[in-house]
Amino acid sequence: DEAIREFQQALEIDPLFYRAHFKLGICYYMRGQYPLEINEYKKCLAINPQYVPAWLNLGHAYLARDELEAAREAYERVLEINPNHAVALYN
Description:
Order of helices and strands: HHHHHH
Structural class: mainly alpha
Strand content: under 5%
């Protein structure tokens, strides 16, 4: 809870701090709040669409929810940025 508050506070100071959205996504994942996790990764990517870790985690989140088409699209975006990304290739 404290980490979530800290990242939210950081975003109040700098709304374009894309890594705070990414870290919030991880926090929500750890709490099992998967829709909020996905939302934060999307916010991160709206600011920085080239941020591979967010695309990768978004793919994992969709895969865990059995949203296979959305997961495939996220992994494909990783591969557009980094064609040799082993985890994206595997998934």
